[in-house]
Amino acid sequence: MRNMMPKTFTLLAGSALLVAGTAAHAERSDWPDNFTVGTASQGGTYFVYGSGWANFIADELGVSGGGEVTGGPTQNLALVHGGDVAFGLTTMGPAADAVSGKSPLAPGLEMDNVCAMFPMYETPFSITALESSGISSISEIPDGARIGFGPAASTSDTYFPEILETLGVEFDRRNGGWTDLGGQLQDGLLDVIAFAAGIPIPAVSQLEVQTDVNIIEFTEEEQQTVIENFPVAEFSIPASTYETLEEDARAVSMWNFAIAGCDLPEDFVYEVTKVTMENNDSMRSVHRSAATTIPENIKYNKVLPFHPGAARWYEENGYDIDPDLIK
């Protein structure tokens, strides 16, 4: 059949497509060519979550990106602030220290180029020992026990030593990546590992396959003491998290948020936030802790200013943010 569409209409349609294509290109003109997400050590939840999220964003937005091994939340704040990475993952405790100039990596420097994007999950503080050690409670940890606290300056290393000291534990402090520490525990080079990481912790799941472990819970009194002295909340590790657990285990936790350099283009951060918040099924396939990576949980950030791009998505979708908490 002969095409009866007028030439003028065809020309106008072609012009409209050209303009639309040009506009779309213009909106990305100031986007970075690639991006990096600061995570933590291999074997921990940050590395799995951050690397998987980076790949997801790269695929969805067509921008090259990936995760990078770092020392964890405290270092990620410094890397994002300095522009060494575009995005990072952090917990609220180290974030509060960073913006108030109390970061152990940069004492006196108020990190004002770090903005919140979206909530991730709660980080439980949990303790693991070999069953053969006979350690089944915090009070049974012997004086001088060799305890692995994760990478230096990580959330675990920043808070867990003080938590255990408050509970009367005397120990020999060790640092390292979670996978390495798991191997040391299995080889008898460590007595206990004090984890602060999203659950399930890959290193613990691996230990369960290879040996018998005790996942040590806090008593009610210990839990309350810690809550009164540290920026943490009550938490319960579901029994379904690990094969070892027969019932939920009492613990404490701290919220995690994804962060961005405040100077990143607003449209870029808007699209990153949009893709993340509107595809929770995909995020849960990255790591099941992303079940709480939902916009309702933005209320748990009372420390960092939200990036204007992220704030725009929340406001467009009916989630209120205090104007004073937007960069």
Describe the protein.
38% of the residues lie in helices and 20% in strands. With 327 residues, it is α/β, with parallel strands linked by helices. The chain folds into 2 domains: 33-121 and 256-325, D-Maltodextrin-Binding Protein, domain 2 (3-Layer(aba) Sandwich), CATH 3.40.190.10; 123-254, 3-Layer(aba) Sandwich (D-Maltodextrin-Binding Protein, domain 2), CATH 3.40.190.10. Strands 1, 2, 3, 4, 5, 6, 7, 8, 9 and 10 form a 10-stranded mixed beta sheet that branches. Strand 5 (145-148), helix 5 and strand 6 (171-174) form a beta-alpha-beta unit. The protein is globular. The chain starts with 6 loop residues before the first helix and ends in an 11-residue tail after the last helix. Mean pLDDT is 91; it is low at 1-26. This is C4-dicarboxylate ABC transporter substrate-binding protein. Pfam families: NMT1_3. Residues 1-26 form the signal peptide. InterPro entries: TRAP_TAXI. Keywords: Signal.
Features:
single chain; about 325 residues; D-Maltodextrin-Binding Protein, domain 2; ten-stranded mixed sheet; 10 strands; C4-dicarboxylate ABC transporter substrate-binding protein; TRAP_TAXI; signal
Total DSSP E strands: 10
Structure annotation, total helices:
11
Q: For the record, what CATH class of the largest domain applies?
A: Alpha Beta
Q: What proportion of the residues form beta strands (DSSP E)? A: 15-25%
Q: Please state the average pLDDT score.
A: 91
Given the C-alpha coordinates, what overall shape results? Answer: globular
Main sheet: strands, sense, barrel:
10 strands, mixed
> Which second-level CATH architecture of the largest domain applies?
3-Layer(aba) Sandwich
In helices, the fraction of residues equals 25-40%
Identify low-pLDDT runs. 1-26
Distance between the termini: 59 Å
CATH superfamily of the largest domain, please? Periplasmic binding protein-like II
Q: What is the N-to-C order of secondary-structure elements (H for helix, E for strand)? A: HEHEHEHEEHEHEHEHEEHHH
The total number of structural domains is 2
CATH topology type of the largest domain: D-Maltodextrin-Binding Protein, domain 2
As a whole number of angstroms, the C-alpha radius of gyration is: 23 Å
Structural class, please? alpha/beta
Protein name: C4-dicarboxylate ABC transporter substrate-binding protein
Keywords: Signal
Signal peptide: 1-26
InterPro entries: TRAP_TAXI
